[in-house]
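1st attempt posting a full record on here, be nice pls
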Amino acid sequence: MGVVRQLYQLQEIDFELESAEQALVQIEGRLGENQAVVTAQEEFVMEQRRLEELQRQQHAAEGEVDKLAAKLASVEEEMYSGRIGNPKELANLQHEADGLKSRRGQAEDRTLEVMERVAAVEARVSALGSELGRMEEEWNDEQLRLEAEGERYKELKAGLEQQRRQLISDIDEEAVAIYEDIRRRKNRAVASVEQGICRGCGISLSTTQLQQAKGDRLVQCSSCGRILFFA
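the predicted structure (as tokens):
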């Protein structure tokens, strides 16, 4: 195999290596925390804490209702026991009972209000939890897929690197050096020749250059300096 064809094959391997390396960088950038999932987790935790606080308020409000109801029952029991004969004392007890009923009614209203808020937040927590579960499942599936894809690209990269080392060992060192120098500067070091034109720069080649390149000699384009290759 001629040296130019070997260099062309080397370039194809290098392009495949670049593609594999770029894919690995993209995969690594997508591995790890997902901001959308993190935001959903934070919102879910925040709503859970809000629910816990409302549940504490509900418990306290219900306790206040029970306390007032017990106090009212005690006062009414005293009123209707027949033990109180003094009209003034009965009037005082009736006034106290009326006040307790009013306070109990207000406490019950507060309790109902808090219960409604608890129900609304419970529904929101449930919805957020379901959505978060879906997002986490999708994220976990994607992470597993990306990890598997990353392993495939690592294996591909290792195989290409082995091919590259083996191919370079069969190519003249000076030709490899020329190739590497051009590739550092222009990325594509070997340009195909089609209809007498260098496909690296689009310039027509001289008859002498064409004849030399057809003989699989290492000939560089007089315009762009790339190595000319007849496919």
